[in-house]
Design brief:
Layout: E1 4-10, E2 20-26, E3 29-35, H1 48-51, H2 53-57, E4 67-69, E5 78-80, H3 83-100, E6 105-109, H4 116-120, H5 122-130, E7 134-136, H6 142-152, E8 168-172, H7 176-179, H8 181-192, E9 196-200, H9 206-210, E10 213-215, H10 222-235, H11 241-247, E11 248-249, H12 251-258, H13 263-270, H14 274-286, E12 290-294, H15 304-318, E13 327-329, H16 340-344, E14 356-358, H17 362-365, E15 380-384, H18 388-391, H19 395-402, E16 408-413, E17 425-428, E18 437-439, E19 446-450, H20 463-473, H21 485-490, H22 499-505, E20 507-509, E21 529-530, H23 552-557, E22 560-563, H24 579-585, E23 589-592, H25 594-597, E24 607-612, E25 615-623, E26 631-634, E27 670-675
Parallel strand pairs: 6-15, 7-14, 8-9, 8-12, 9-10, 11-21, 12-13, 15-16, 16-17, 22-26, 23-25
Antiparallel strand pairs: 1-2, 2-3, 4-5, 4-17, 18-19, 19-20, 22-27, 23-26, 24-25, 24-27
Helix pairs in contact: 3-20, 6-15, 10-13, 10-14, 10-15, 13-14
Length: about 675
């Protein structure tokens, strides 16, 4: 007899929507995943990717038992072993290294799950107790996050739902239809009520197609555009002087800087027309309420942090924050009272101060020898919630590092990814349907619970359980390693989110004002927006490392700027192995404008070689008006082994870091293209 149950869940992926889910379970098997119609921002809808989550959980290629390498690194050749065998050997190997220097062990994780339990609890306790190197988790958003916090005092922004009431929405650096679907629903509601939507993005995205206007600026010139807008706000008197005087610090210096950014100068740098700059400034300066949905694509360049600071200042200059439908949203995560101390237990370091390695320079760091400045050579890496061989910049170096015979690598995974192929051990991890978790969001203001819907498939274990097991094998008897997932969930938030209510209702809205910055009260020491921030000064346009502004000789050799936005049916490198989604994407593509394709003898559908001094990437040309002249788009992130010639777009990216936040500059990359 069929026994059907519905279980509350939350999407774990690195997406601002953090959707509430309902999982239908029939006789212990998940048969359907839907958006929760009662959740105010999910309103019953899921993206194509997550709606097929059972296909991922029950995928025939799922890793269901511990695996031990039997072939060369990178070949993906393994034999199944028992958990006892795997844990005993891993603990012994890590113990030997730790006895020499625990900082030779590196954890490597990011947002494969954004759950507070499976993403950043027992794992951090384990590595803190071990004394391993710390990881600077920068690969996606730290330039924008740190810039926003430096300006506002924390990563805070508008309530998502209030975009529906805006009269003007600037969608800046975001393909919302593909990567922020539920924001797009509210933007569409505003559009139906007469709001104007403007998309600011080098690529003519699916979102740009649906907006009233698209400004295709050059990659890395967002800060210049913001300065040009400020020039026009000053020149035309479109300023809220009362809000500026009472709620900002440092305006006179920025005003002087912006006065040099005429529409003509701004247009020349950005690749726009002066009238486009004037028109955007007029719309923004004369329309209330006006809202900016800023996203993280635009901060993946050398000057990304300065650009975010300049854009975040705009609503303070016009007083847009006075309205609940005005202001800006890049991240809302700073509103959440996450208790990192309780979850991660940094006290287990017991006074030790391990070095910190940046995940975005793992390609360099795995190839470094020991030195006084660097510390010990990295001898072991434990990878979970990430796929660095596919996603980290300058992948030829990343691959070389992971192929080291003297590097001991453990990977917690669902599938044999590019990184797992290089592991000494692969440990089967649970998917979101198979464990408990609690979630914040960076795109809305609701905390959510994810209940375990089904038993773990095969021999899979949750991340929390794997690190408990490793701790026990290594003799770590601190009481915190016995904490259950529920016990950690109960202390994940320091206030405002009651776990019993969260479990009963599925989500809890944070108790915040409707217009949280209407009267200032920024969470800075002064309570003001910091235009002139300590240690950073007044923001400015910072040109790309690889640009004609900064390096004319390099631009002569490689005249095309390349950005690598996500393919619509993948989420970073997640879902690439789900055949139904890969079939929709078809093959790795490079979008190129006809004016760049023609002189190079490139036709639509032709195999091409994209190259620079760091390497070459093989894919298929899509001659398209989605690309502006001088800019190409390497849509990603394909697994290397599923791409052409075993490469992906990160063959070409570099490891130079952003101005703020020590983040990668993925979209700051010059290339050329030729027929393959």
């Amino acid at each position: 007899m069929s026994q059907i149950a519905t279980v509350r869940g939350a999407c774990p992926h690195d997406c601002p929507d953090t959707c509430a889910m309902r999982i239908t379970v029939d006789n212990g098997r998940a048969v359907r995943v839907q958006g929760d119609p009662d959740h105010p921002t999910t309103h019953g809808a899921l993206c194509t990717k997550v709606s097929r989550y059972p296909e991922r959980t029950y995928h025939p290629d799922r890793v269901l038992t511990p695996l031990r390498r039997v072939g060369p690194k990178g070949a993906g050749q393994f034999e199944p072993v028992s958990w006892d065998t795997a844990l005993a050997d891993i603990a012994a190997r890590l113990g030997e290294i730790a006895a020499r220097d625990p900082e030779a062990i590196l954890p490597y994780s990011y947002a494969g799950t954004m759950g507070l339990l499976q993403g950043e609890s027992m794992d951090r306790r384990f590595f803190h107790r071990l004394g391993a190197s710390l990881l600077d988790r920068t690969i996606c958003a730290s330039a924008g996050s740190e810039a926003l916090a430096a300006t506002y005092g924390a990563r805070i922004g508008m309530h998502l739902e209030h975009f529906a009431e805006s009269r003007l929405i600037l969608i800046w650096g975001s393909n919302s239809i593909a990567s922020n679907l539920h924001f797009w629903t509210f933007a569409q509601a505003a559009k139906r009520q007469g709001a104007k939507l403007v998309c600011i993005d080098p690529r003519r995205t699916e979102t740009a197609d649906k907006c009233h206007q698209h400004l295709a600026l050059r990659p890395g010139t967002d800060g210049a555009l913001a300065l040009g807008l400020i020039h026009e706000l000053v020149a035309n008197g479109w300023l809220d002087h009362d809000y500026i005087d009472r709620h900002t610090h440092g305006w006179p210096a920025l005003r002087e800087r912006a006065l040099a950014w005429t529409p003509e100068r701004t247009a020349d740098v950005c690749g726009l027309t002066p009238d486009e700059v004037r028109g955007l400034a007029r719309d923004y300066g004369t329309t209330q309420p006006a809202a900016i949905r800023l996203n993280y694509g635009m901060q993946r360049v050398r000057g990304g942090g300065n650009a975010v600071r300049l854009i975040a200042i705009l609503p303070c200059l016009t007083g847009a924050w006075r309205h609940r439908a005005g202001g800006l949203l890049l991240s809302a995560s700073g509103w959440f009272p996450k208790d990192a101390q309780a979850l991660q237990r940094p006290d287990l370091l017991a006074g030790r101060q391990p070095r910190t390695l940046n995940m975005s320079t793992v390609g360099n760091d795995l190839l470094r020898e020991a030195s006084p400045g660097f510390g010990p050579k990295v001898e072991a890496v434990v990878v979970y919630n990430s796929n660095p061989v596919a996603v980290a910049p300058e992948s030829p170096k990343v691959v070389a590092g992971f192929r080291r015979d003297d590097l001991f690598t453990v990977v917690l995974e669902h599938f044999l990814t590019d990184t797992a192929d290089h592991a000494d051990y692969v440990l089967p991890a649970t998917t979101q349907l198979e464990h408990l978790d609690v979630h914040m969001s960076y795109g809305h203001t609701y905390a959510l619970i994810n209940e375990q819907a089904v038993a773990p498939v095969g021999e899979a274990r949750s991340n929390t359980q794997i690190f408990r097991d490793l701790a026990a094998r290594m003799g770590f008897d601190d009481p915190c390693f016995a904490d259950s997932d529920e016990a950690m969930a109960r202390v994940a938030f320091s206030r405002d989110v009651d776990f019993d209510r969260l479990r009963a209702e599925g989500w809890v809205k944070l108790p915040l004002p409707e217009a949280p910055l209407a009267d200032g009260h920024f969470p800075t020491a002064s309570g003001r927006c910091l235009i002139d921030a300590p240690g950073l000064g007044v923001p400015d346009h910072v040109p790309n490392y690889e640009s004609r502004e900064h390096d004319p000789a390099l631009a002569d050799r490689y005249p095309l700027a390349m950005i690598s936005p996500p393919a619509r049916n993948f989420l970073n490198s997640t879902f690439v192995n789900v055949k139904s989604l890969r079939d929709i994407e078809g093959e790795p593509l490079l979008e190129i404008h006809v004016s760049d394709a023609g002189p190079r003898g490139i036709a639509d559908g032709m195999p091409v070689r994209v190259f620079n001094d760091r390497g070459a990437y093989h894919c298929t040309a899509r001659v398209s008006t989605r690309a502006r002249p001088g800019v190409v788009h390497g849509l990603g992130i394909w697994w290397r082994k599923l791409g052409t010639h075993g490469t992906n777009v990160n063959e070409l990216t570099h490891q130079q870091l952003t101005d703020i936040g020590r983040a990668p500059s993925f979209y700051d990359c010059l290339v050329d293209v030729c027929p393959a």
